[in-house]
Design a protein that fits this description.
Number of strands: 0
Order of helices and strands: HHHHHH
Shape: globular
Radius of gyration: 16 Å
Helix content: over 70%
Distance between the termini: 22 Å
Strand content: under 5%
Number of helices: 6
Length: 187
């Protein structure tokens, strides 16, 4: 989290990190407790990433890219689907039969979303947006990820300004809960 570069470079690095965590989960045997550890880590990364995209990337897509409203709406709907899956996954232990079904659904949804962003949205944004604006967006996304929630909140607003106002408070509460429970850390 917080890699540097323009918004596209930042978000693509996040995508690679999420894929690495997915690979770790896939490399473990079903029921392994580390599958839950990595699922929690991937959820934390995906939630921060999604909140930052919804606060800064998608408004820029709406402003700069032809047909941007429809693109942003579709991407936000993808986030909503993934967030509902993560909320259900949060309640499962690695040994729960539902865990494997949900993690498979999450991987499929997120991989499809990443492919769409990298093949369609990012090239269109790069062509439509000046480099200095992309750099500025990268800085804003990095800052947003630092204070963003780490747990799924499917009922939370996903469009500015409400999401920008509420995310830091939810993020603070989430990080306190994570610290108290050790969520996302190896015991």
């Amino acid at each position: 989290m917080g890699h540097g570069g323009n918004v596209i470079d930042e978000l693509m690095t996040d995508h690679r990190e999420v894929e690495e965590l997915f690979g770790r989960i896939e490399g473990l045997t079903p029921g392994s407790p580390d599958r839950k550890l990595y699922a929690d880590q991937v959820t934390m990364e995906l939630v921060r990433h999604s909140v930052a995209e919804e606060a800064y990337l998608y408004p820029a897509v709406r402003r700069h890219v032809a047909g941007g409203d429809a693109i942003a709406d579709r991407e936000i709907e993808d986030h909503s689907t993934a967030e509902r899956i993560m909320k259900d996954l949060e309640r499962c232990d690695a040994g729960d039969p539902e865990f494997d079904r949900l993690i498979g659904m999450l991987m499929s949804e997120v991989r499809s979303h990443i492919a769409d962003e990298e093949q369609n949205l990012f090239p269109r944004l790069r062509a439509a947006c000046p480099p200095d604006a992309l750099d500025d967006l990268g800085d804003k996304v990095r800052q947003a990820k630092k204070v963003a929630p780490t747990r799924p909140h499917p009922a939370a607003p996903d469009k500015p300004p409400a999401n920008k106002l509420l995310a830091p408070g939810a993020g603070l509460v989430d990080r306190l809960r994570d610290a108290l429970t050790g969520r996302g850390k190896k015991a």
